[in-house]
Amino acid sequence: MSSRALLLVNRHARQGQKGLSEAIEYLKTLGFDLIEQSTEDPKHLAEVILRYQHQVDLVIIGGGDGTLNAAVDALVDTQLPLGILPLGTANDLARTLKIPNSLSEACKIIAYRNLRRIDLGWVNGKHFFNVASLGLSVKITQLLTKEAKRRWGIFAYAATALQVIWEARPFTAEILINGESVRVKTVQIAVGNGRYYGGGMAVADDAAIDDQRLDLYSLEMKHWWQIILLLPALRQGRHIHWESVRSLQGQEIEVYTRKPRPINTDGEITTYTPAHFRVIPKAVAVLVPPEIRS
């Protein structure tokens, strides 16, 4: 692999503006020949990648999970390897891949050039790295402002989650998985491809981003305070063992609701129910630490 790279940084990411100049300095010192592009709107990332696909050998993206999600479809189309600079608030994909938040260390990992092919989730034509969900997480996304994330970081997720949990109301859904139909009354359905989401919560305690399966959980609590009790278990993915949490696994999943409900993919609302999910094995190559294990 040569050292010609397309560097894309979301200036609105929590550390985007500050991180851009630092990243350029680190990467040039490590021998990279950079085409530097920054954006005020992550939605433009895909078209930039497609524009430069024949001029570079890899894409380096600085931002959070929403920024990476905006670029994922173009990464699939071009099959360019991905280097990650964790400059966002949650950085859950970086956490899953054990890429540290230190910008200098993240640059060294890219320079080491250890490639790992990872799975992607897919829902209604949109790829995602971490988790797609409906219910509580969508309301958190709708209420969580960029200003709050920039000012309070990961604590903004916790404060907004508590507000949403207080107002939580269950909805009914039908889940089709492994040839069976399951009807649920739930406050959240999450379908995970990776391990971490939502600022460090684990979708399941044994989830991996290359296990070629989707992990679904449904929170079927009757009272809002039960969700509060569940929060510590969510951090380790142990919630799937609770009686009030339904846990299912499969390669394809369909979810139907009485009326269309928005779906959050990697922190961005991108589609609505009815939803058809599937896992795309080994869909993209990512530069990761050499000691990484599945």
Automatic annotation (TrEMBL):
<dbReference type="GO" id="GO:0016301">
    <property type="term" value="F:kinase activity"/>
</dbReference>
<keyword id="KW-0443">Lipid metabolism</keyword>
<keyword id="KW-0444">Lipid biosynthesis</keyword>
<comment type="similarity">
    <text>Belongs to the diacylglycerol/lipid kinase family.</text>
</comment>
<keyword id="KW-0808">Transferase</keyword>
<feature type="domain" description="DAGKc">
    <location>
        <begin position="1"/>
        <end position="127"/>
    </location>
</feature>
<keyword id="KW-0547">Nucleotide-binding</keyword>
<keyword id="KW-0067">ATP-binding</keyword>
<dbReference type="InterPro" id="IPR050187">
    <property type="entry name" value="Lipid_Phosphate_FormReg"/>
</dbReference>
<keyword id="KW-0594">Phospholipid biosynthesis</keyword>
<dbReference type="InterPro" id="IPR017438">
    <property type="entry name" value="ATP-NAD_kinase_N"/>
</dbReference>
<dbReference type="InterPro" id="IPR005218">
    <property type="entry name" value="Diacylglycerol/lipid_kinase"/>
</dbReference>
<keyword id="KW-0418">Kinase</keyword>
<keyword id="KW-1208">Phospholipid metabolism</keyword>
<dbReference type="InterPro" id="IPR045540">
    <property type="entry name" value="YegS/DAGK_C"/>
</dbReference>
<protein>
    <submittedName>
        <fullName>Lipid kinase</fullName>
        <ecNumber>2.7.1.-</ecNumber>
    </submittedName>
</protein>
<dbReference type="InterPro" id="IPR001206">
    <property type="entry name" value="Diacylglycerol_kinase_cat_dom"/>
</dbReference>
<dbReference type="Pfam" id="PF19279">
    <property type="entry name" value="YegS_C"/>
</dbReference>
<dbReference type="Pfam" id="PF00781">
    <property type="entry name" value="DAGK_cat"/>
</dbReference>
<dbReference type="InterPro" id="IPR016064">
    <property type="entry name" value="NAD/diacylglycerol_kinase_sf"/>
</dbReference>
